[in-house]
Amino acid sequence: MAKILIAEDEPDIRELIELSLGYGGYEVAAARDGQEAVEMALTDSYDLIMMDVRMPRMTGYEACRALKKRPEFSDIPIVFVSAKGQDKDIKEGMAAGATAYIVKPFEPEQLLQKVKEILAEASKPR
């Protein structure tokens, strides 16, 4: 079972993502902001990290850059889930090191399908 870390400051959205991923059979840990996500990622191992862009203390972009600077995170997919869905926002997220960018609002089934695809791609031998 894949282990996923999510970082989302909005409790309702965090709960929706947690429930959706849990229903899909994934083990889920949740952070309330980018700083907490980085701290959690450094103390445990995850198969995928999902985060919002706009969060207190540290944005998703900043958290992604901080993690991708470390060699142990080079192969860990990071996915942004954000209402900031303009081309410039998506480009900035991908430039920060993200594997994918999901725009809110999303359907839980869509989220699960995207996570499944990303994990399948990440597990392929290189």
What is the spatial order of strands in the main beta sheet? 2-1-3-4-5
Q: What profile does the largest beta sheet have?
A: 5 strands, parallel
The total count of helices amounts to 5
Mean pLDDT: 94
Task: Give the fraction of residues assigned to helices.
Answer: 40-55%
**Number of DSSP strands?**
5
Rg from alpha-carbon coordinates: 13 Å
Low-pLDDT stretches: none
Helix and strand run = EHEHEHEHEH
Reported CATH architecture: 3-Layer(aba) Sandwich
Structural class: alpha/beta
Q: Per DSSP, what share of the residues sits in E-state strands of 2 or more residues? A: 15-25%
Fill in the CATH topology.
Rossmann fold
Oligomer: single chain
Please identify which CATH superfamily we are dealing with: Response regulator
CATH level 1 class label: Alpha Beta
Q: What global shape is seen?
A: globular
Describe the protein's architecture and organization:
- The chain contains five helices and five strands.
- It has one domain (3-117): 3-Layer(aba) Sandwich (Rossmann fold), CATH 3.40.50.
- With 126 residues, it is of the alpha/beta class.
- Strands 2-1-3-4-5 form a five-stranded parallel beta sheet, sandwiched between helices.
- Helix content is 44%, strand content 18%.
- Helix 1 crosses helix 5 (108-122) and helix 2 (34-43) packs parallel to helix 3 (60-68).
